[in-house]
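PT: before anyone asks, these are the final sequences, not the draft ones from last week. 434 residues across everything. Please model them as a single complex and drop the result in this thread when it's through.
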Amino acid sequence: MYPNNIKRIFTTLIIALFAFIATSVHAQQTTTNLTSYFGFFGGVSNPLGDFKKADYYNNKAGYAKKGLTYGVDGTWYFYKHLGLGGSITYQDNGELNQANADSLAAGYTNSYGADYAIVTATKRYQTVNILLGPQYTFTTGKFLLDLRASAGILKVYSTPETNISLSGVTNQTAVFYQRSASATVLAYSGIAALRFKLSDNVFLTARGAYMSSQGPSIKNEDRTTNIGRIVTRQSFNTFNTTIGLNFGL
Amino acid sequence: MNKLRLFTFLLLAGLFVIESCKKDTIIGSAYTTKPFQANINSAVWAPDSVIHTITYNSASKTKTLLLQGTKEQKQIVMTVILNNATNTPGFAADTYYIDGSSVLVDYKTQVYQNGQYVFLPHGAVSPGSGSITVTSVDSVKKQITGTFHFYSRSSSVDSTGATVITIDNILGGAFTNLPYTFTSN
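LR: through. Structure below.
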């Protein structure tokens, strides 16, 4: 699922790139730098791969959901169509739902041979990423296509927390926990944005941003054994689809 | 200036949406799916050590169904004896009421006695205190399905000399496609 998604995204980007290049052969070429810009965007953050999966038996599964994302973005052009772009993005990737909690409870019941299990889930995925990288912009008519590769940090404010209570398990009578994580980790990103010139200095922008990070380590407490699902690190993979406005500087 | 106003408005709107996101607490639960389980005094109990047999005795022409489960210092032993039985691996589907002779049930707990841990009856399961229902038997796959319920009554004398009656309720018992072994001797 995860590799297929990545392939699909990059295939789409490559096709878009070549299509754009093909149609912009006769486009006007600038001899000076493009106008640097600054703007904001909002839309949907879509989890991908293991981050999206809801599978008790996959310790990398994140149970993440589609959620709101918004942020600010800008690029400074230092040589014709080549610039340095940066973005600050907030994203929410949801929390465990009832089906997830029931599924985890069933998994722990089976793993431990318990008579009964209760899983209590709190908190959600809330992050901010700050990314910086080179950008190249293709232009044709009123359209501009920005392609950017960037890297930076992912500030994780919270991840879902679960506490598990088992009945009928002699060596695990205490409630045990998978704690919420809060950490700053490295992240990288690929961004494609199509800008439409509304006026000389205002652009309407449709933007797709893939972001990946190995994510924060996860603490597990009060376990007497490592039976069953145990998550020690939660990776992040998202593709954010947003629209926004950009303003020339 | 207008751009700045618009940007500020949208940023505040976005922050409002985020702040208004409810931080829910979700509680999930699951019961065991083991093929042999019951509620003992309202707590789910699914034995991890089980014995399920049907034994034919050619001398007495009896067929005996034994269902036994053990877990966490608790043990249930259920025996149903069919008279004038035939030497086949099946068992008649029927409801068998505890009668103290051909339908016997014990609820035992583990106690420390004479230097060792042993299972002893925790009270008495008297005639009329419950039943075992065999709903289906697959004599080819040797799987048996049914339900059971009963109570065990015990009495003791407290420090004031008063008699204290304790009832252990074993309800909602079920055995589902439980594999068994058949022996003929």
